[in-house]
Every structure is written in structure tokens, then in C-alpha cells.
Amino acid sequence: MAKSTEPSNPQRSSQLARSPLYDLSLELKARMVPFSGWEMAVQYAGISSEHQAVRQQAGMFDISHMGKFGLRGKQLIEKFQPLVPSDLSRLQPGQAQYTVLLNAKGCILDDIIFYCQEPDATTSEERAVIIVNAATRIRDKAWIAAHLELSEVSFADISKNKVLIAIQGPQAVSFLQPFVEDNLAPIKAFGHLETNLLGQPSFIARTGYTGEDGFEIMVNAEVGKELWQQLLAAGVVPCGLGARDTLRLEAAMALYGQDIDDNTTPLEAGLSWVVHLDTKGDFIGREVLEQQKANGVSKRLVGLEMQGRHIARHGYPLIFESETVGEVTSGTLSPTLNRAVALAVVPAKLAKIGQQLEVEIRGKNYPASVVKKPFYRSPNRPSL
Description:
Blueprint: H1 22-27, E1 31-35, E2 38-43, H2 47-56, E3 59-62, E4 67-73, H3 76-80, E5 95-102, E6 108-117, E7 126-132, H4 137-147, E8 153-157, E9 163-168, H5 172-176, E10 192-197, E11 200-205, E12 214-219, H6 221-234, E13 237-239, H7 241-250, H8 286-295, E14 299-306, E15 317-320, E16 323-333, E17 340-347, E18 356-361, E19 364-371
Parallel strand pairs: 3-13
Antiparallel strand pairs: 1-2, 3-9, 4-7, 4-8, 5-6, 6-7, 9-12, 10-11, 11-12, 14-17, 14-19, 15-16, 15-18, 16-17, 18-19
Helix pairs in contact: 2-7
């Protein structure tokens, strides 16, 4: 569901929004940083221990900064289809689709998750929840409003009214289940439901941004505060943006504004699986993607593994035969694998698995190889 992970340009604290869980994070002595207009926890006990908690047991993240939209109306899915390259008509209530909003160039305005809900029991209107990135929420809202056929469709920004908590890890189900009325075990990956949590209405999705099993829970603020405290008392480890970044990078999940942006098409980003040219009609940017599929792309987002311990960071140049050919978009020392890994944009001809490149780090070049993504695949992920 949620994505953005690294701090943005510094702003004065007085200008930053705060989650309803902000004070609870301060009580845990979290280190707070500016991010996408919010004051967010980057770490609690430490990035490494938080990362390992998610991989081995369970960790929880306050992701209330994410944009949250609610939609309802007659033929809602049909009317939303032109805004994305994915065929949403395939969704049944309780299913979701990771997809992208595209501009006329076929490039990514944002990556989102579209959750298809049960129709309204009284009016039979179709309903959906959309989760978007914090930094692009205002732009996304304007884009959707401008391009969605709004006759008989209502579109509401519920971002400030709801808390969003992610609980991620192989023990996420067992930690969360005691507080939830319905059985969570049958929910498949990208499944979701509306149920009572702590006796109050909630939206629970089996999605996340860590590569592990887990859930994202959307509730009112007071319920969110109680859930956070109950999970903490049960032994779930609070985690910040730092661990979220290392976790998502091990799983090769792109970060909007860094690995992908509005100059990147989904085919260039390795997201061809969200582009359903054969099963849906027209959509914004379709012609560009048809041309790219027919003729091939000029650049690709690839996985890199450093051959030594040097870490390839965002913005570092990529070198091939003494020429700069691309740049690193994200990089870290993988806590799980104990190897330096990165995502990078390279010319398509250099995107083959096994391709040898060099990364320039502080004036010196160090060897790297193009490798298969993801770098780490959890054995705990549920089936789709």
C-alpha cells in the first residue's frame, strides 16, 4: 500500500504535519525527520534491529502520511479504467491491484493501490479505496478529479481523517488476529476486508512495502492509537522510515520520486505486469506503451550487486568502458543478505543479467553486476 521512505528537503517542524500517533512515537524516543511535509519517525531502537524484527517476527509502521482516497458511484471501475494501464475489471470485491497513474507521455505520475470493495448494500454503488504516495497526494487528487468521469461518482480525500498502520512480518497474523473480529488467515495477498477491530469499523488489507507478509490497517485516530499501544504491549517492534527503506529495497520495490518518476514508463521500470494492453481498452498513455512494447525501451531499471563492501548510493554514476551510462537510484547494505545492493537506470543494452558495470564512489570506480530482482524473496509471503 504504502511506499515513500526517505526524508525529503528539511523544513521547520512548525510547518510539518503530524500523525495522530506522533506523541506515541515521541514516548518511544523515536528520531523524527521531515518527510513529504510530515514529521515522521526514521528509527526507534535502530534500523538494523527494526529490519530484522520484520524479517523474523513482526514490526509496525506508522504510515498515516500516505494519501487515502475513497470513491463510490455507478460504474466506478469502468470510469476509472482510462486512468491506469491495468485492467481493473478483473477485480472482485475484496481484491486489489497495484498500478500506476500515467501522463500523456505514458510516464508514471504515481504508483498506487486500487482496492475494490463490496458494493454499497443500500444503493448498490461500486466502492473503492485508493492509497497514494504522500508527496504526490495533492497532484494525484487534482489529476483524478480532472480525468475521472465524475457524473454519478463521488471522490473524497480521507487522508487526514484516518490513521494507517502497517504490521509486517511472518508473525503479523498472530499478533493482529486477537484484535480483529473476522479470521485473517484466509485473506490472500492483496486481499482486504472491512471488519471490526477493537470493536470499531476498520479497513484491513494484506498488502505492504517490505516484501514480507503483513497487513495495512486503516482506522479512525482513536482506534489507531489504541491499536498501536496494544500491539506494542504484545511485543510488536515499532519501526521507522529507515527500516522501511532497507526492507523495500531488498524486495526491489521502487520508491516514487527516486527509482521511478514522471519521466519513467512502467515498461522502463520493470512494471510490465501492470500493463494489460491485450485485455483493456484505451487509457492515458496507451499509444506510447504500445510503441515501446513493439520497438523496445531505451532504458531499464535494474538490480545491481556490488562485488565488494562499497555501497552504491542514490545519484552515483554508473560507468561502462570509461563512459557514464546511467546512475544509481537507490542503494544500501542489505541487512538480510549482508551484501551491498542497488537499483539503477541503465541503457537497455546493458540491462542483461550478469552485465558487468562500475559504480563511481567518491572519485573511484568499483565493480558491480546486474542481478535478478528481487534481491530477497521472503518464504513467508502468502499467495495471490
